[in-house]
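Hi team, as promised in this morning's meeting, here are the two structures we talked about. I've kept the exact order from the run log so nobody has to guess. The first one is mostly here for context; it's the second one we should focus on when we meet again. Sequence first, then the predicted structure tokens.
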Amino acid sequence: MTRITDSSTRSYRSPLRAQQAEETRARLLDATVRVMAGGLAFVSIPLVAREAGVSVPTVYRHFATKRDLLGAVYAHVVRSAGLDELVIPRSMDELLGGMRAYFERTDSLGDLARAAMASPAAEDTRRINMPDRVAMFRRLADTIEPKPSRADRDRIARLLVILTASSSLRLWRDQLGSSVEEAADDVGWVVRAASALATSRNRS
């Protein structure tokens, strides 16, 4: 017996399934953030499944490995804070110009996300995402004119990774009592000083 397929039904159901999959994925990432915020040193798939109220196989359908799950947490937190709405800087000037907006969005993270990012389990998340962050800041350092040496470019990139970390903003805010504007100005000052030093070394 030949089955007649209704293509209109198939095209209607496909977006619905995609939406459901995206909602489940977000639910799993929210659950991961809650598990991390509990202060555990390690995140396990069974713990995330229990927190999300789903089966372990459901987690693996959306994230093939625990590394994939933890690697997606940072982007999920970034989206939750609206940081993904900021224009990705294409030059050092654009980065420094947008630093206040970046810090303001980072500072607006909820208590749960802050606790998750400060937890021991967040170390794995940072480690997984670190190569991408370093690569982005290297590209920005390459826009400095005159171009710094490779070693100086890498130093500036590493400085930016540290200075723009949420943990650094917490130090400015909680330990130094600095405002978001003061923190952003400090980052700008350090980067400009490092760029000037790299430029003077290239000329000598």
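And here is the second protein, the one for discussion:
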Amino acid sequence: MTDDAQTINALADEYVLGLLSPSEDMLFDALLTHDPALARQIGSLRDRMLPLDLSATPAPLPSDFPARVRGSLPTQDQGSPVAPPNAANRPNAPKNWVPRLIAASLVGAVVGFSGAGLRQAPTPTVVAVLVDANGVPQAVIDDYGNDTANVRFVADIAVPPDRTLQVWTLPSPEMGATSLGTLDRAAATELHFSDLPDPGAQQLYEVTLEPLGGSPTGRPTGPIIGKGFAASQI
């Protein structure tokens, strides 16, 4: 791996944490559309951080916060500008070279994809975060609306030898709960199914623990591991 590639991978953490500047963030967004490997890395980072995001309780800023910030800033004379200090969580800031590096990587990615004849990674139609009864995230489902979906687990789920995980969705009350596939363990899996309408916002998804081989009735029968409603991505 080249030094530039290693640096781009290191910047992925700052991108997910929201530490890049607006211009750097826009360039990184463009780079992701042309680099599926980097996009998968970002998705994995977000999955690992998702439980922390969802479990955090919003806290209001103290009333004296503006005054404390002003008091911590260096003083400056009228004609003697003071260079802004480096952010504590970005020891090398300001990184004026970051936009140039991302832009150069973006150009390389576009040229590489054009030469290889590869297509841009698809965007899911909807994404659903499935949580348990306590609100703890268990899995994330990306539904592409083309009879394909991905399920990724963000929690450790033990599956007994005589049981099967089964993924479900509710396309409509008339259709009822419909299976998207079964899994013998909690691992990232691509699901394939047929004869379902395109998914929509607020569509219900869930994972249940069923008898070995899947539900004997074609409907959910076992305990719910996690469930959630879809958010549209297009």
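Starting points for discussion:
The chain is about 30% helix and 25% strand.
The radius of gyration is 23 Å.
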